[in-house]
Amino acid sequence: MLDKLKEIEKSALESLAAITDQAALDAWRVANVGRSSPLMQVFAGFGKLSKEEKPVVGAEANRVKVALESALAERAEAVKNAALAKSLEEEKLDVTLPGRSVNVGRLHPSTQQLRRVLDILAEMGFQVYTSREVETDDINFQMLNFPLDHPARDMQDTFFIEAGDRGDNPILMRTHTSPGQIHAMREYAATNPQDPPPIRIALPGMCFRYEQITARSEIQFNQVEGLAVGKNITFADLKGTLTDFVRRMFGQDARVRFRASYFPFTEPSAEMDVECFVCGGKGCQVCKNSGWLEILGCGMVHPNVLQNGGYDPNIYSGFAWGMGPERQLMLRNKINDIRYFWGNDVRFLEQF
What we know:
By secondary structure, the chain is of the alpha+beta class. The chain has two domains: 2-90; 109-349, BirA Bifunctional Protein, domain 2 (2-Layer Sandwich), CATH 3.30.930.10. It is built from eleven helices and nine strands. Strands 1-4-5-9-8-7-6 form a seven-stranded mixed beta sheet, sandwiched between helices. Strands 2-3 form a two-stranded antiparallel sheet. Strand 6 (256-263) and strand 7 (266-275) form a beta hairpin. The protein is elongated, with a radius of gyration of 38 Å.
């Protein structure tokens, strides 16, 4: 049996030395160390050996197996290197060809625009204040001057997390960032209830509305709420602040206008338009031939909202606004479908 093992080893190593390609290597592996190879047959015949022969033959068989596997690994490396060298010699390499482009990650366009808005507001002295996305009915509506039976509630279709009547104060996904006004005012007022400090903050975040998804409406969107509260704040301060913001965002020559509107949590209320930067105010498809583009709603904080936030409306006043970064991006880049922002289409995202 020992002589047979030596013969198996010698024959296998001699045939291995002549191999020059991967296919022959695979065939050699099956023939010499595979399950049906002569070496494996020796292991299978251990039961027929005597007690004295088993340890001697077993040790020799294991040595031969290790030797063949080691020789196979070395030959495989040599064959691989030889094939690589041959390809370099025979194949032409054109060093003038352009290399493969590397895909570089970048921020989502909505995030880019959101940061652009917050950077401008930070330069104007507004601090970022974040508020939660899951709210109660009273904070999202009632504290913002939406009574239980107020018709303006129908303007904002709501995702309710907990079923129940409105009077039960159910949990919901916030429909706007305005609830952050209540949280912020109460937090600031708690520091000095007798003489609350002034507020100048920007509240960014995602909002959710149960709406039909179309090219111009989504069930989720970003908003940036602005809030300034203090003594002797007037509508002129609101107009000056927003006009300055528009010029920083769209250029010093940007023209703006304010139109009277209605929001339950502001009085008086207005909507702000920017002269269409696509056609220069002449009228085009983007501005629907009006020459103007709406970018936000605003107004003076309603006295009821101030009081709910812990500020005496007889002493304090304030203004607030809500703007949509995605809408500004759509207007600036002539994007005609808001669904592109959340569709994760690389062809769209790579343009920003």
